[in-house]
Design brief:
The protein is of the alpha+beta class and about 375 residues long. It has eleven helices and six strands. The protein is elongated, with a radius of gyration of 36 Å.
Length: about 375
Amino acid sequence: MAAHRKPRPFPLGRPAARTAATLALASAATATLFEGSGHADPAGPGRTPAQVRTEVDRLYQEAEVATERYNGAKERADAARVSYDRLRDEAARRTERLNTARHSLGAVAAAQYRSGGLDPAVQLALTSDPDDYLERAALVQKAGDRQAAAITAVRREIAGLAQLRAESADRLTALRGHEAELRRQKATVLDKLAAARRLLARLTAEERARYEAAVAARTTPRASGGGATARADLSSGDRTTAASAGTTPAAASASAPATGRASAALSFARAQLGKPYVWGATGPSAYDCSGLTQAAWRAAGVSLPRTTYTQINAGRRVSRSELAPGDLVFFYSGISHVGLYIGGGQMIHAPRPGAPVRIAPIDEMPFAGATRVA
């Protein structure tokens, strides 16, 4: 009866067909996996250079956020490594002192064992020269006092060494945590930069030329009268940020010339113009944004912290209308970019990979705040 027929087995006589079907399924699964886990590539046919620039700028900005996190993690890892090495060196010195003290105590104990350790009253009774014995007994008492002090010192060294080793273990744990964070942030930076490169690689030579021209036009220094052009290049959200600041690059151009340490910092920054942006770099041949400002102020005798989000707290906050040459100017809501204000609505900064240290209008990015270092 048809209702009770056994199910037909899978046909085994066509291995080539089965292999092709299996490979097709595997290929489809792999494609689905990579499409789900990879980056969506927004550069498609007909995409304009402006659209590409918007997406590339977003990737570069996200890479810069990760770069500053990397810089912070590196700073913490370096501090943890220095602390760990210091504790480890101190533990080695204390171990050497402890071993020396133990050796001395062992030598005294061996000498006492060889002398027989007779009761002092018996020794006095048997001696032929009591005065000489009493004199030597006093010396032995002093030696005993010194020995007791040595034992106390050994005990202190043992306790101190145990504490040092515990602190070293804590520092090592912290160091490994910071190093793991470093690896995560480095992977994020490289991932964003690779995505931007893939995006740019999809452009034709003509589209790439238009893209580069648009970037150059946006970052070319302008006279004070060109501030409107720079602002017109902002998104609507960025224009709101600029307007709320209550001033324009033209208004800022009346700032006084730099003097003192600010002048020294600006002179250093100008000497770096044209050097490449490299994420995580602090000079002298390449910089990232906070690496440049840190190096500039170091040349002026001022030590700044490493990251944008700590540099903003390294001095007195000033409003945009108060900007003066030498001030640090910060951008984006996450305080992920910094430049050195030079006056006239312009700054020197290290923009991003592929864009060397240059002069640019502060209106090219959403303004987040400013700090006067000295």
